């Protein structure tokens, strides 16, 4: 069997998540939180113990605590004999996948995420995201709508996240998103929800942060992956070349280009005998896999009972 770790991103956070992981062992995961806290200059555990959902939703906090939680679950699973053979991450989760695959360093990546989240939260140009779902989704139909509205409004509008065959997220300037929302609602086959975030992540609205972010990306060290890892912008495996310069460009491009999670899932389903584990809070990625196929079970790391069953199964083989 091939153990595949998939990491959620911003949006999977909840006020209960620290208590859920404490169900394992806080002592075991404390070094991870300490490293992230040192890099990001605030105590992650103390923050999580008192944070409200509103505060957890602030980008400059969310990305840091989600990264810390995801990497803490890697430590938990490793202690139970569950180590990845392949990794992939959704949006912010890509950073976790790269650290778990040995490509990036935990401390350096924590520093990079600190700057990434700060730059995103300080953007002067604000955008919106709109989630769209349908049991008979036509991605081409939504892409054409985005193109037409973008031309009509002279504003940015595009698919930001290709989440599954039944769900995508459209991002862009506020006027364009509002027009898109009103038009898509007229189609009874589609359900649309404007998300409670103040930025259009993974769209060109993020462009103004890229020059400064590039400086921070250039400071990190990149190593060859110890296991295969899949990237967001392509939905395909990362191949190390040019001394890591291609990966650095990917991290920059990921800020303003779509997340191709549907392609990522299809790539993962080509793995022989996959055991897929959602590593982090919640089960958002499990739901996206269920949209695509009912034939593959996705285990959730926050479900201790299921994880213990999986650990026993793996360690018996």
From TrEMBL:
<dbReference type="GO" id="GO:0006633">
    <property type="term" value="P:fatty acid biosynthetic process"/>
</dbReference>
<keyword id="KW-0808">Transferase</keyword>
<dbReference type="GO" id="GO:0004314">
    <property type="term" value="F:[acyl-carrier-protein] S-malonyltransferase activity"/>
</dbReference>
<dbReference type="InterPro" id="IPR014043">
    <property type="entry name" value="Acyl_transferase_dom"/>
</dbReference>
<dbReference type="InterPro" id="IPR016036">
    <property type="entry name" value="Malonyl_transacylase_ACP-bd"/>
</dbReference>
<feature type="domain" description="Malonyl-CoA:ACP transacylase (MAT)">
    <location>
        <begin position="6"/>
        <end position="306"/>
    </location>
</feature>
<dbReference type="GO" id="GO:0005829">
    <property type="term" value="C:cytosol"/>
</dbReference>
<comment type="similarity">
    <text>Belongs to the fabD family.</text>
</comment>
<dbReference type="InterPro" id="IPR016035">
    <property type="entry name" value="Acyl_Trfase/lysoPLipase"/>
</dbReference>
<feature type="active site">
    <location>
        <position position="202"/>
    </location>
</feature>
<keyword id="KW-0012">Acyltransferase</keyword>
<dbReference type="InterPro" id="IPR024925">
    <property type="entry name" value="Malonyl_CoA-ACP_transAc"/>
</dbReference>
<dbReference type="Pfam" id="PF00698">
    <property type="entry name" value="Acyl_transf_1"/>
</dbReference>
<feature type="active site">
    <location>
        <position position="91"/>
    </location>
</feature>
<dbReference type="InterPro" id="IPR050858">
    <property type="entry name" value="Mal-CoA-ACP_Trans/PKS_FabD"/>
</dbReference>
<protein>
    <recommendedName>
        <fullName>Malonyl CoA-acyl carrier protein transacylase</fullName>
        <ecNumber>2.3.1.39</ecNumber>
    </recommendedName>
</protein>
<dbReference type="InterPro" id="IPR001227">
    <property type="entry name" value="Ac_transferase_dom_sf"/>
</dbReference>
């Amino acid at each position: 069997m091939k153990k595949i770790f998939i990491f959620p991103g911003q949006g999977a956070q909840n006020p209960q998540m620290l208590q859920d992981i404490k169900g394992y062992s806080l002592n075991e995961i404390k070094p991870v939180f300490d490293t992230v806290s040192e890099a990001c200059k605030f105590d992650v555990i103390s923050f999580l113990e008192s944070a409200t959902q509103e505060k957890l939703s602030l980008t400059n906090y969310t990305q840091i605590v989600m990264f810390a939680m995801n990497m803490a679950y890697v430590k938990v699973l490793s202690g139970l004999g569950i180590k990845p053979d392949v990794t992939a991450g959704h949006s912010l989760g890509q950073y976790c996948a790269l650290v778990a695959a040995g490509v990036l360093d935990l401390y350096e990546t924590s520093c990079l995420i600190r700057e990434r989240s700060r730059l995103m939260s300080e953007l002067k140009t604000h955008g919106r995201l709109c989630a769209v779902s349908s049991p008979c989704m036509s991605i081409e139909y939504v892409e054409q709508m985005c193109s037409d509205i973008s031309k009509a409004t002279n504003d940015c509008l595009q698919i930001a996240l290709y989440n599954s065959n039944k769900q995508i997220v459209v991002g862009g300037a506020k006027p364009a998103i509002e027009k898109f929302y009103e038009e898509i609602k007229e189609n009874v086959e589609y359900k649309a929800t404007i998300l409670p975030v103040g930025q259009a992540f993974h769209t060109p609205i993020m462009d103004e942060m890229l020059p400064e972010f590039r400086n921070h990306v250039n400071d990190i060290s990149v190593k060859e992956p110890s296991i295969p890892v899949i990237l967001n912008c392509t939905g395909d495996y990362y191949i190390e070349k040019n001394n890591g310069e291609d990966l650095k460009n990917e991290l920059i491009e990921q800020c303003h280009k779509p997340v191709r999670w549907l392609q990522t899932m299809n790539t993962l389903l080509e793995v022989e005998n996959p055991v897929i584990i959602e590593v982090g809070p919640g089960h958002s990625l499990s739901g996206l896999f269920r949209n695509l196929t009912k034939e593959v079970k996705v285990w959730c790391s926050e479900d201790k009972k299921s994880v213990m069953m999986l650990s026993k199964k793996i360690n018996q083989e």
